[in-house]
Write a structure and sequence with these properties.
heterodimer, A: alpha/beta, four-stranded mixed sheet, 8 helices, globular, B: alpha/beta, 5 helices
Chain lengths: 278, 198
C-alpha cells in the first residue's frame, strides 16, 4: 500500500479526472456518433433529418471549438476501478473532486450543483456529498466520468413491481419514454436496471449508460423498436428514431421484489475513461 | 422578409426569414423547415417578468424572442442553446399582444399559447443541446436589463441563418401536439388497456 498517500498519485488522480471530464464534455464517443449518423441515413422525415443534421454539425463544432457539446454540462458522475495493489482512501476521493473543480474552472463548465432546498450554488460542481464516486475492483486504475444533464434525468422513472409482473417490464420502459416525449432531447439511450434493491436498480440503470451502444441483445432490440414505433422522433418533432439503444443491467433481488429503473439519456451521451498511472 | 432556395440538407425547399418579421409568418405551416437571420432578443423567466413590469427595452413590433440563457465571456457568445419554452407559457400572451411575431425555443408550449399565437405569431423549435451550432451562427450586438444576470438578461443577438422548424404556426397547427397524440395511439395499439395484463 505504498501509494496510499503518495502526493504524486493524488495529483495524477486529479489530472486523470480533469482529463476525463474534458474528454467527455467535448468529444462524443464514436459508438454514439455512429448511431446518430445511422439515424440520419435511415430517417424519412425532413424535419427529423434537419434535427439530426443539426446535432451532427454541433458535435463537429464542439470538437473544433474545444467547447462543451451542450450548455447543460451536467453533474459529473464518477466511476473508479482500482487494482488490488491500491487501497482507496478519502484523500483519493478528495483528489477526484479537485480534478472536477479544476475542470469546472478551466473548460469552463456551468456550475450546476446546488443545495436541494435553498438552491444555493456551490460554484464548483462539488460539495454537499456530491458528485457520487462509485469504486469497484478492477485490473487497472481508471477514472470514468459520465456527465448527466437534467433534461433527461428529470423524466427518468423507477417502479417497484410485483414479481408476477415480469411481463410488464417492456411496457413500463416504453411508457416511461411515452410520458417523457420530446423533453429529454431525443434520440435517447435508455439505461434499464432490473433487480437489486430500490437504490441498486437506479444505480444499475445509470451504469447501463456506460455500455457501448453498437450492439443490443434481442430483448433490448425489441424494446428499442417498440420505443421507435412511438414516432416521437428527434426533439419530439416526429421521426423514425426516438431511441438509439436500450441497455439493460440486472442484479439479484428479494424474492418479494422486482425493482425496475429507467434512466433516460439525451443524445449527448457523454462518457470518457482515463487510466491513472501507478 | 422572405427568401427561398433549395436546401442541401433536408432536400426540400427551405424558407429564409429575416427579422423584423411581418405578415410572411402567416404563410408558415407547422412542420416547415426554415432559417432565421437578423436580430433576436433572449428572454427567460426573469426577463419576461421584467418586461411585464418595466416595459420593452426594444421595439416589440415584429420582434423575435429566443428562450435562451447564454454563456457570454469577453463580449463573445460561448454557448447559446435553447431552454425549455414551457416555463414561459403563462408569460407569453402580453409579448404577442405587443407585436412580437416569433418565439424560438425547445419543447413547445401550451395549448393556451397555441391559441394566443393565432393570427399573430409562430413558435420555432431549435434543436436542444446544440449550443455550439447556435453560437457559431450568432453575433452579440447588445444587452438590456443586464442587472438580471448573465442567464436572465435580455441579450441582443444577430443570427446568421439559424436552422429552425416551425413547430406551432399562426393557425393552430402544432407539430408537438400531433406527434404526442400519434405516440399515444401507437402505445394504445401496442399495449391495449382493456386486455388482461401480466
Amino acid at each position: 500500500m505504498s501509494v496510499l498517500s503518495d502526493p504524486d498519485v493524488l495529483q495524477r488522480i486529479s489530472d486523470a479526472t480533469c482529463t476525463a471530464v474534458r474528454d467527455a464534455e467535448i468529444f462524443l464517443p464514436g459508438d454514439v456518433k455512429d448511431r446518430l449518423k445511422h439515424a440520419l441515413e435511415v430517417e424519412s422525415s425532413p424535419v427529423a433529418k434537419q434535427e439530426l443534421a443539426n446535432i451532427l454539425e454541433n458535435i463537429c463544432l464542439a470538437e473544433e471549438r474545444s467547447a462543451p457539446l451542450c450548455q447543460d454540462t451536467g453533474i459529473p458522475v464518477i466511476y473508479v476501478t482500482i487494482p488490488s495493489s491500491v487501497a482507496w482512501s478519502g484523500e483519493m476521493e478528495e483528489a477526484v473532486y479537485e480534478g472536477i473543480r479544476t475542470a469546472t474552472r478551466e473548460i469552463p463548465l456551468r456550475p450546476n450543483l446546488v443545495d436541494p432546498l435553498n438552491r444555493e450554488n456551490t460554484q464548483t460542481n462539488t460539495g454537499l456529498s456530491m458528485p457520487p464516486v462509485h469504486v469497484k475492483a478492477g485490473d487497472r486504475f481508471t477514472i470514468t466520468v459520465l456527465p448527466k444533464g437534467a433534461g433527461s434525468e428529470n423524466v427518468s422513472d423507477i417502479r417497484m413491481m410485483n414479481p408476477s409482473e415480469k411481463g410488464l417490464i417492456p411496457k413500463f420502459i416504453v411508457e416511461t419514454m411515452l410520458t417523457a416525449g420530446g423533453r429529454p432531447c431525443p434520440p435517447v439511450i435508455l439505461g434499464v436496471g432490473i433487480g437489486g434493491t430500490f437504490d441498486i436498480a437506479a444505480s444499475l440503470a445509470k451504469e447501463a449508460l456506460l455500455e457501448p451502444v453498437d450492439a443490443m441483445s434481442p430483448c433490448e432490440q425489441e424494446i428499442c423498436d417498440q420505443v421507435n414505433r412511438l414516432g416521437i422522433g428527434p426533439m419530439g418533432l416526429g421521426g423514425d428514431t426516438t431511441c438509439l439503444a436500450v441497455k439493460v443491467k440486472t442484479a439479484g433481488c428479494h424474492t418479494a421484489s422486482l425493482p425496475v429503473a429507467v434512466n433516460i439519456q439525451c443524445w449527448a451521451a457523454r462518457r470518457a475513461t482515463v487510466e491513472v498511472a501507478l | 422578409m422572405l427568401g427561398r432556395e433549395k436546401s442541401n440538407r433536408g432536400g426540400s425547399s427551405v424558407k429564409h426569414l429575416k427579422t423584423p418579421l411581418g405578415d410572411e409568418i402567416l404563410d408558415l405551416k407547422a412542420g416547415e423547415v426554415v432559417t432565421l437571420s437578423g436580430v433576436v432578443y433572449t428572454a427567460r423567466d426573469e426577463a419576461h417578468i421584467k418586461i411585464l413590469e418595466s416595459g420593452f427595452p426594444f421595439d416589440p413590433k415584429g420582434a423575435v424572442l429566443y428562450h435562451c440563457g447564454p454563456v457570454i465571456q469577453d463580449n463573445q457568445i460561448v454557448v447559446a442553446g435553447p431552454t425549455t419554452s414551457a416555463r414561459m407559457n403563462n408569460l407569453t400572451g402580453f409579448m404577442l399582444d405587443s407585436g412580437v411575431r416569433g418565439l424560438v425555443g425547445k419543447g413547445g408550449m401550451s395549448s393556451k399559447v397555441r391559441d394566443e399565437l393565432k393570427g399573430k405569431a409562430v413558435y420555432f423549435a431549435f434543436t436542444g443541446g446544440c449550443a455550439n451550432l447556435a453560437a457559431a451562427r450568432m453575433t452579440l450586438t447588445g444587452v438590456h436589463y443586464a442587472d438580471l444576470g448573465m442567464a436572465e438578461a435580455v441579450w441582443e443577438i444577430k443570427l446568421d441563418k439559424l436552422p429552425l422548424t416551425v413547430a406551432m404556426d399562426a393557425h393552430g397547427g402544432d407539430l408537438f401536439a400531433v406527434v404526442e397524440e400519434h405516440a399515444h395511439e401507437v402505445f394504445q395499439g401496442m399495449y391495449p388497456t382493456s386486455t388482461t395484463e401480466i
